[in-house]
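Researcher: Next entry in the queue.
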Amino acid sequence: MKTLRNFTSLALVVFTLQSCNLLSAAGVSSQGQPTKKVKTELTSTTANSPVNVDHSQWDKLLKKYVNNAGFVDYKGFKSDKAKLDDYLKMLSEKKPTDDWSVQELLAYYINLYNAATVKLIVENYPLKSIKDIDGAWTKGRVSVGNKELSLGGIENGILRKMNEPRIHFAINCASISCPKLMNEAYTAAKINEQLDNATKEFINSDKNDISASNPKLSSIFDWYQKDFKVGGKQNVIGFINQYSKTKINTDAKITYKDYNWDLNEQK
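Model: Structure for this entry, 267 residues:
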């Protein structure tokens, strides 16, 4: 009986440790990364940070291999994988701190997420969907200093904690129903305008069917609905109406569209 109790206790400890590791990878923990919050309306500037990261290498790759519709030439990226690896290595060596401005942190982690996602696809290409990759969002695979972050950790443990819901339209999960991958790098000098453009583009695209009384919205607005606030209170319709060409009635019933996880590949 004592042996059974010891085995049960050991199993519980192992399960707890595994659960903690999984939760950390999925994004419950920031793993020590800075998560500075946007406290007022975000402005674009490089003047308030001791570090200004150069994202021009990523910008060149995006302009070369991503079209205006957001579809990606993964074969092309594969041929230029050395440059992609060099960019991610540069980001890894930067090691963000709380001294960085919120603008620099947002641009850094958005670009890190998008570049690491492209690398993940390239390393597993050809494939039909990112969901075919084991632990695509939960495995630690993105180096920042001496830490290995997961894609889920970057999104949920860092970016979502920065009080900027527009990040949901800036990060790209390599799928048809995702907000499109912009063919320019995010920078502190343009971050507010870039996030605004990404949000307007996504909300007014065919990823949503917006009408006054019968809106059919992307599942993103369902999965992350608590992030979309107006005046500090959760308000998905109010948030969308700030950017949508068609305004939704405040009492409209929302339905959500099925998500297409097929690869966002250029044909």
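Model: Residues 24-205 form one domain.
Researcher: Noted, moving on.
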